[in-house]
Amino acid sequence: MQSSLFEIINRIRPLSPELMQELSGLLIRRQLPRKTQLLTEGSICNELFFIEEGLARAYYFRDTEDITAWLMPENNLILSVRSFFLQVPSYEHIELLEDSVILSIRYEDLQYLYQKYEAFNYVGRVLTERYYVLSEERALFLRRKKGRERLEGLLGTFPELFNRVPLKNIATYLGMKPETLSRLRRRLK
């Protein structure tokens, strides 16, 4: 099973044929329709997901409002970090926004590979560091930038966003109301 996941991993550190074969045997590949819930609040995130094709979002509820925490297009990992690493119930949901092809690996299988293969342990650390930095950058971005700057930044990194994600999800991801987002979009045109 060759995919962009293996290309990403091999750019970090080339894997031995034995490790590649074992990893391939542990990955589960699924074609799933949009609106599939990969995780729901209260359940334990026992899989790490890689999006080969499609788009996913993580979200939670504040009172009755649905708040998008993450948008992850193809060639990205998505999981409920706290739930996965601590194996505790999740406070968020993960949903596919498009028909998608995903790869997943179970928590136990990932831990097994980390213990058996030093090279894979290194890859896991590097990927964790990258996503931790991305998370911190997003948090700083949302706290330090004005609405228009947040929108411009998101469009700079994810230009096809408005063709793929409902406006209400983009608005909550940027920390604003849909009306505010619509007004800012009109001003940017």
Secondary structure layout plus pairing:
Blueprint: H1 4-12, H2 17-26, E1 28-32, E2 37-39, E3 47-53, E4 55-62, E5 65-73, E6 76-78, H3 81-86, E7 93-96, E8 100-106, H4 107-116, H5 118-144, H6 147-157, H7 161-164, H8 167-173, H9 178-188
Antiparallel strand pairs: 1-8, 2-7, 3-6, 3-8, 4-5, 4-7
Helix pairs in contact: 4-5, 8-9
Question: What are the key terms here?
Answer:
four-stranded antiparallel beta sheet, alpha+beta, 189 residues, 8 strands
Our measurement of the CA-to-CA distance between the termini, rounded to an integer number of angstroms, reads: 43 Å
The CATH class of the domain at 4-117, by name, is Mainly Beta
Query: Spans of 5+ residues with little confidence (pLDDT < 50)?
Result: none
Backbone CA Rg: 18 Å
Largest sheet, if any? 4 strands, antiparallel
How many β-strands, per DSSP?
A: 8
Mean pLDDT: 92
* Helix-residue proportion: 40-55%
CATH architecture name of the domain at 4-117? Sandwich
Walk across the major sheet and give the strand order: 1-8-3-6
What is the assigned CATH homologous superfamily of the domain at 4-117? Jelly Rolls
Morphology: globular
